[in-house]
Write the structure tokens for this entry.
Amino acid sequence: MLSRRAFLQWALSVSLSATAWAEGMPPADQGESRLVRPAEVAMPRVAILDWGLTEMALTLGIVPVGIAAPDWYRRLFAAPVLPSRVQDVGLLFQPNFETLKALNLDAIIITPAHGLLRDALTGIAPLVTLGDWGGRPLAKIERDTRLMARTFGREAEAAVLLAQSAQRLAQARAQLAPLRGTEVFLATVADVLHLQLQTSGGLFDDVTGRLGLKNAWRGGGNGWGEALVELQQIAAAKQARLVSLGKTGGVPPEADTPLWRSLPLTQRNNIVPMPAGLSSTGALLTAVRFAEALAAGLSRAGELRHV
């Protein structure tokens, strides 16, 4: 286990680097500001209290010893797979402090939203705070991927991940070139009369823009980039496609109701279903999987329209 002094020395340097990144500046010398050097130290024992950051860690080859509500992660995230040995440390904002203490941790990864827990958690292990992704989520996720990688000595893995992700996003954008400017509602069905839409500031909205598409929802949303709306608020949209983000994948069963069949927006041939296991709280892999699924779904739907 790393000494607390060594960790705190690293924590100060990474905090300064994060500030530089936020201001659009390259961080200062990073040579001595890593928590882990693969040739010197084994992978630290880390707990994570956020599912998006759990995804990020796993894509970098960092397997936490514990995360909050792992069963919910497995329900909401199809990839990357969370190993069965990862322990449950409680709820996202109500972790089990005794469990965390027993894990003999080197670090706990949290988000700014865990501010009220900072004092209690600091007494257990040093904290790494990431996940402030509001406004421009995708760019900030890319930034945090670099920060997490440098923290745990995974720069090489991050370089490959970021390069491959950029390439896959570019390929999805190219695939959608004939549909540039198409408007889409990014929706999770709440019930036959209500939809939860992804709005400006959310990850899926950001990815949609990068692909050259437009979010058809012009209204506002909450701090997570979501808005619960009545179907009648968007039913009159004439050209938009309805992208279904259902947790089970496929066309939602509401599409077979008389109401949905009567509206152009919600007819089966206008719905583009996304696969299960895509969470708007995800990180870079989720962004890429969503982009590729959206490109494939819209391209297929466009071809069917011309049959």
